[in-house]
Amino acid sequence: MPLTPTGTRELLAKLGHQPKRFLGQNFLVDGNIVRKSLDLAGIKAGDTVVEVGPGLGTLTSALLEAGAEVWAVEKDRQLHAHLTETLVPSHPRLHLMEGDAMDFPLAGFDPVAAVSDRLPADTAGGHRTALPTKPFKIVANLPYAISTPWMDAVLSGPLPDRMVLMLQLEAAERYVAKPGTKLFGAISIFLQSAFALEPGHRVPAACFHPRPDIESVLLNLARLPEPFIFPAETKALIRACFQQRRKQLGSILRGKLAPEAAARWFARLEAAGFSAQSRAEQVPVALWRDFAV
Ligand SMILES: C[S@@+](CC[C@H](N)C(=O)[O-])C[C@H]1O[C@@H](n2cnc3c(N)ncnc32)[C@H](O)[C@@H]1O
After folding, report:
1. Mutate to test the pocket of ligand 1, among 8, 74, 103 (most ligand atoms within 8 A of CB)
2. Which residues are 137's β-sheet partners?
3. Where is the Ribosomal RNA adenine methylase transferase N-terminal domain (predicted)?
4. Which end of the chain has the lower number of beta carbons within 10 A, N or C?
5. Residue 292 — very low, low, confident or very high, per pLDDT cuts 50/70/90?
6. The domain containing residue 246 runs over which residues?
């Protein structure tokens, strides 16, 4: 069970720890939401789970009690020290690291090495996404400031089977936005090419201490049977198209691609009923995927 708001306040006082806004330190104080996160993720004994920002260890403890092996990365030195003292000694299935989730999006877990630590030389680096991987899930109450760049890094693969993420409602809406809407952007395309949205849960501010002044949601994402991972160059191009979302695709692409490559994109746009005059936000996810292959 997580700490109550009072218990959390008392523990923070004992640690002499002031919640840091810039690290998104809004700690979960609601047992139902902790249970719901584990239920949505279908956590069972033996699962490998990555957690970003374990904080005071609320989700972490629940995951460990459910029999999961947990890989967690915490940036706050004081919270990392607290967990090292309280959770690590009694939980050999917890791999806790101090660090930045932007440097370690999977908290140091390597799904490829977990299957085989002897990779053929020519499969190092960029080709790792095609290699066999150990299945894993991600369950996290994300620090909101990094949620989109972190998600972008995770979507470069290897991919988890499922992600259950506590997010700012506004970020979640961008991730699942549909074409033709203002919220539809590069991250919507990368995410929806690899994951399907399953029913999640709205989370009131009262479930956290301190209470955030934004709305939160538990986003529940299941990996598609044939997920698509965009190559880095195509991702950069798609991002560029959305950075100038009011501009016609034709003028953006002509400036970024060789003439033959641009002509290929235009031909595909036209075959799908669009044109060089179309804007990035009008183009559906499947067509962006076609551009990449
Ligand atoms: C919203 S709190 C969640 C805490 C805890 N998991 C819970 O649910 O109560 C976010 C946590 O992420 C940590 N954090 C913030 N930025 C981080 C980063 N870049 N890398 C790793 N952890 C980070 C914060 O220190 C904090 O512990």
Report:
1. 74
2. 49, 162
3. 33-225
4. C
5. confident
6. 232-291
